[in-house]
Amino acid sequence: MSEVSTFLKANERYAASFKKGSLPMPPSRRVAVVACMDARLDPARILGLEEGDAHVVRNAGGRAADALRSLVISQELLGTREVVVIHHTDCGMLTFTNDQLKKKLREGRGADTDLDFLPFSDVDQSVRDDVRAIRESRLLLPGVPVTGFVYDVKTGRLRQVE
Q1: pLDDT value at position 1?
Q2: Looking at domain 27-160, which CATH architecture does it have?
């Protein structure tokens, strides 16, 4: 059963008291957050963000390679000047390899792909790798602070890695 009708009812309640329609397009805190899409991770709550404060880019694993297009737009067109990367404990990206997922797609759907799903076997190292990729990208502004964290899904705490 679809959740859409529940979402629409929730949106009606939200819109009834909505007062933030005049926020500017650029984020007021000039920061972009790259985080995993895991449902246990809520970047706004974790970081104390409100609407209009920051760009939040989410994808499987919070990987920089998937977020690059959004980060370029965020910096070049909307003025962000800091990046925060958040990966987390107990991440699904730790549970498979590219070969395993490609085999599953081939056997289950008859679909072949050369897509890199960007899995990792060490969450701290994945943060370090993504922070480095953002810092070294020629498409992004040099010298912009980039900080990496691991969020603990059991305690709600952030631990700085890079």
Answers
A1: 81
A2: 3-Layer(aba) Sandwich (3.40)
